[in-house]
Structure formats: structure tokens, C-alpha cells
Amino acid sequence: MHRDERDLLFLNIASLFARYSTCTRGHTGAVIAVGGRIIATGYNGAPPGQPHCMDVGCGGGVVESVYSGNLGGSVTTYPNGCTRAVHAEANAVAFAARYGISCDGATMYCTHSPCTACAQLMASCGIRRVVFGELYRITEPIQMLRDLGMEVDEVA
Fold first, then answer.
1. pLDDT tens, position by position, 119-142
2. Is-above-0.85 flag for pTM?
3. Rounded to an integer, what distance in angstroms lies between the CA atom of residue 3 and that of residue 36?
4. Choosing from 5, 64, 89, 140, which is the catalytic residue?
């Protein structure tokens, strides 16, 4: 399988995991792979044992509902972002850590480009490449990863 085809495959799998997201602001998914094999997955949602956004809200007060084409409906937004959900990328890294799976040299496939905290987490756990499907708000984390010598690719 050609590398570009594998990137699309893993991004599609990340999109499938995004369907399980429990945050009402948006649905994101992530897949970590090493050597063409998936080692961990994640989606954005509350930590284990905590109530989910879809049950009790994200916190911070509702601002507006906006149309989100890729989700096929509206998304409720909050002034300071969601304070309840763990990001998909962080959940994938946490799963790997919980079960003693090394992310060293891995590729992270994300439905959206990472935030600064997730980019820092990726760099810290040894991920070497990030592939994302669409830009999420800011580009600074992408540049930070590139400055650290990581390969970052947007695949539409």
C-alpha cells in the first residue's frame, strides 16, 4: 500500500472514531500508528468516570450554535472552549501510556490539526510525524512541531 493511501486510510479511521466524541462543540478523532499498524486511538470526551458534555454541557456558558458542514449540523460553542473533554490526541497518547505502548517514532493521524498542548504532548512522547485532515483555528502548533524536526502533513 502506497504511503498516501495509508495516510487516507488512517485519517478515515480517525474520522470514524470522531463519531464517538461526546463533546457538543465538535467531534475529533485520532489514531497513532507505528510501522503501518494502529497502536492507539482516541476521540474527544470526558475522562473515564466523569459526566460527558452531551449530558451536562461543556462548561463556560453557551455562546452560539454554528453550522459545521463536516458534522452535518450545528455545534454549540463556548467562550473559553470546553473545560470537560480531553482532546482526541491526548486520549490516544493516554491510552498508549496506560497500557505501556511506546509512541516513539509513531505517526499521529488527527481529524484536525493539534492545539498547542496536544502538539507538546506529541513531541514529548516521541511521535515523529503528524497527519491531519483539516486546520483547526491556529497554525502556531504546526510550526512548533516543524521547528522540532517533526514532519507535519495536511491531507484533504
1. 999 999 999 999 999 998 888 999
2. no
3. 9
4. 89
